[in-house]
Amino acid sequence: MFKNHISQNNPSLNEKFFGLTPENQEVFCYTLTNKQGMEVSVINYGATITSIKIPNSNGIKTDVVLGFDKLESYINSFNLPSAPYLGAVVGRYAGRINNASFILNGEKIQLTSNHNRHQIHGGSVGFSQKVWTVKSIPSEETQSIILEYLSVDNEENFPGELSVRVTYTLTDQNELKVEFSAKSTEDTIVNLTQHSYFNLNGHQENINHQKITINADTMLETTEELIPTGKFISLKNHDYDFSTTKDCPAIIDNTFVLNDTKAATMYGEKSKIKMTVITNQPAVHVYVGGNCFDQIKGKEATEYHKTSGICFETQNFPDAPNHSHFPTAVLGKNEWYSHQTIFKFENL
Fold first, then answer.
1. Would you state the pLDDT for residue 159?
2. Residue pair 80/295 in contact by the 8 Å Cβ criterion
3. How is residue 46 annotated by DSSP?
4. What pLDDT does 57 receive?
5. Residue 279 needs a FRET pair 20 to 30 A away by CA distance; which of 11, 196, 197, 322 works?
6. Is a pLDDT exceeding 80 seen at residue 2?
7. Which of 26, 66, 6, 74 is nearest to 46 (CA)?
8. Which residues are catalytic?
9. Distance between CA atoms of residues 345 and 268, nearest Å
10. Short-list 115, 112, 279, CA closest to 192
């Protein structure tokens, strides 16, 4: 069996075997716990968050993200009509790239296409379907886990060998800090995100009537295939103006241009849990879904559907390599990519 974790000889109490991939690679689940009793569980398949449990004043915990109980379900979910990417890290490039191609240093790069003629979320087998190497696990000193993945040169036709690291840290202030870093041997493009689906009333609930705000005045205009046109849409008097609190929409798949590092908030009236999303990224892509098409059951035999959860995918703009006026997604040779996002939870 391939070893992709660091504690083969000294298994930790917060490390549990989660399963074997078809290639016989071991996958483990690691749990971070803080002094408030909050728990975050992560597997090294896709560097995926499988659960986030928030305790209330009585110590009763609500699991606020969608996920599966078995590795097999995560693997099989990528064969669904529309893969949900539940809780996974997405890369090399989150979102859509028009015609699966872009120009870099005067050369056309033709990527693999996995979304009609376009590419989405890194291609046919992106970072979400890779077994990551665990470099550091939670300890008494720090409730943090570091996972790394080495994307070889020309993987999904992206140039350069890319070393990627994600660090998940749980603070005693009920903050989950997500930190990405990456470095390439050649000029390339990078856009990473965390693809958890949140439901603050519990993963078995419906997100309808949960309240959200998004700190944006504009969003990207897109085609019918959700490819950015390069234009911006004003949100003044728009249905998707979430500058003031509104119910979660039943349908949304849009990129919002952020005004500030405080990207969004969400509140579940039933659970009294509030989440604030803080990021150094220029955009948040908001998507409602989680549908498993009655083919795979979620945790605790839950039937996930079209309004099971909402994603706040903090990131650069989709298709940025094809729009010179968008923030650049080019990562120069031997330069560092850096992305920080915090999901902060409060009981109100």
1. 98
2. yes
3. T
4. 85
5. 322
6. no
7. 74
8. 195, 313
9. 11
10. 279
Q: What is the pLDDT of residues 20-64, one digit of tens each?
A: 999 999 999 999 999 999 999 999 999 999 999 999 988 899 999
Residue 251, judged by CB atoms within 10 A of its CB (0-12, 13-18, 19+), counts as exposed
> Distance between CA atoms of 19 and 10, rounded to whole angstroms?
18
Please tell me the chain's helix, strand, coil percentages from 3-state DSSP, rounded to the nearest 5: 5, 45, 50
- Sequence-distant (≥ 6) Cβ neighbours of residue 157 within 8 angstroms: 109, 110, 111, 112, 123
Identify the DSSP state of 56.
Answer: -
Q: What are the φ and ψ backbone dihedral angles of 25, each rounded to 5 degrees? A: -90, 135
Instruction: Tally Cβ neighbours within 10 Å of residue 334.
Output: 11
Task: Reply yes or no: is the peptide bond before residue 117 cis, omega within 30 of 0.
Answer: no
The C-alpha atoms of residue 183 and residue 96 are separated, in whole angstroms, by 22
CB atoms within 10 A of CB 141: 6
What tokens appear for 14 in the block? 């917060």
149 touches 4 (CB < 8 A): no
- CA 178 vs CA 183, 277, 339: distances in Å: 17, 11, 8
99 sits in the region (left: phi over 0; alpha: psi -120 to 50; else beta) called left
- Any long-range contacts for 138-145 (C-beta under 8 Å, 24+ apart)? 138/12, 138/14, 138/30, 138/31, 138/32, 138/33, 142/169, 143/32, 143/33, 143/34, 143/169, 143/170, 143/171, 144/32, 144/168, 144/169, 144/170, 145/30, 145/32, 145/42
pTM for the full predicted model:
0.96
Amino acid, single-letter form, for residue 315: Q
SS3 label, residue 53: strand
What domains, with CATH codes, occur in the chain? 15-347 (2.70.98.10)
Among 108, 157, 150, CA closest to 130: 150
Inter-CA distances, 129 with 71, 135, 190, Å: 11, 18, 17
Q: Give residue-wise pLDDT tens across range 226-254.
A: 999 999 999 999 999 999 999 999 999 99
